[in-house]
Specification:
The protein is α/β, with parallel strands linked by helices and 267 residues long. It is built from nine helices and ten strands. It has one domain: Rossmann fold, CATH 3.40.50.1360. Bound molecules: 2-phosphoglycolic acid (PGA).
Length: 267
């Protein structure tokens, strides 16, 4: 696992955007796995800037989002479909048919079949080249809450109370939605699904993430901290700002190795 520490959120976002831009230039029909939440907002802003200033071309890009709340009204402002449209899709030249997000309004009896089809669509596109991830304070990736299996696939899940509370504070409260009306279910890619991506980029920012960042990078691999499974994936980059990295025991080592790598690249 490669650990990169950037001075602040802005630098972290720029660094992640550079990786995506390179990916798109090297493979214009890349398949990207996308995430929502407050963490990737800066990344999407950067990508939109690259689209405007450098004409970064998304015309052949295919995307699959990690997750969606289950049961939200289709035009709901809190839906991840709406988040993606507002923060990214409406600003870039992606073919809307190539932008996939789980449908949170699928009838309950059809979900299993629908989730299988979502996975099949990823396979038909020859898999995800680059998967973006955030991390919840409980260690979830996508909406794979503690206890999720390494082999879990796309499915309907019940959200943990900490996740409901955190997301209500960040995304529902400002629109006047009572906590009891915030979504408590979601459709999410599984950890097994995420694991099939060629490369994974996890971003974490801020002091509130410092404890879980130290746990998932330096602690044991356990389903109680789903992000810790990433220790087993062969191609993971974790991009942190100083605050999120502040509780890593090997903080100095990571800073040192970043410097050494730069020296090597300059040679
Ligand atoms: P955040 O959420 O980016 O809003 O902190 C991350 C997550 O829950 O995966």
């Amino acid at each position: 696992m490669e650990v990169i520490i950037k001075p602040n959120y802005e630098e972290l976002s720029k660094y992640a955007a550079e990786i995506i831009s390179r990916q798109i230039q090297e493979k214009p029909n890349s398949v990207l796995g996308l995430a929502t939440g407050s963490t990737p907002e800066g990344l999407y802003k950067e990508i939109v800037r690259m689209r405007k200033e450098k004409a970064l071309d998304f015309s052949k890009i295919v995307t699959f989002n990690l997750d969606e709340y289950y049961g939200l009204a289709i035009d709901s402002k809190q839906s991840y479909a709406c988040f993606m449209h507002e923060n990214l899709f409406k600003h870039i030249n992606i073919n809307q048919e190539n932008a996939h997000i789980p449908d949170g309004k699928i009838p309950l009896q059809e979900i299993e079949n629908y989730c299988r089809q979502y996975e099949n669509k990823i396979k038909e596109n020859r898999g995800i080249d680059l998967q973006i991830l955030g991390i919840g304070i409980d260690g979830h990736i996508g909406f794979n809450e503690p206890g999720s299996s390494l082999y879990s696939r796309t499915r309907l899940v019940v959200l943990d109370k900490t996740t409901i509370d955190t997301n209500w504070e960040k995304f529902f409260k400002k629109d006047g939605i009572a906590k009891e009306n915030a979504s408590s279910f979601a459709i999410t890619m599984g950890i097994g699904t995420i694991f099939e991506a060629g490369r994974i980029l996890l971003m974490a920012s801020g002091k509130s993430k410092a404890d879980i960042v130290a746990k998932f990078i330096e602690g044991p691999v356990t389903s109680q901290v789903p992000a810790s499974f990433l220790q087993l994936h062969p191609n993971v980059s974790v991009i942190l700002d100083e605050d999120a990295a502040s509780k890593l025991q090997r903080y100095e080592h990571y800073k040192y190795s970043m410097g050494e790598r730069k020296k090597l690249e300059r040679k």
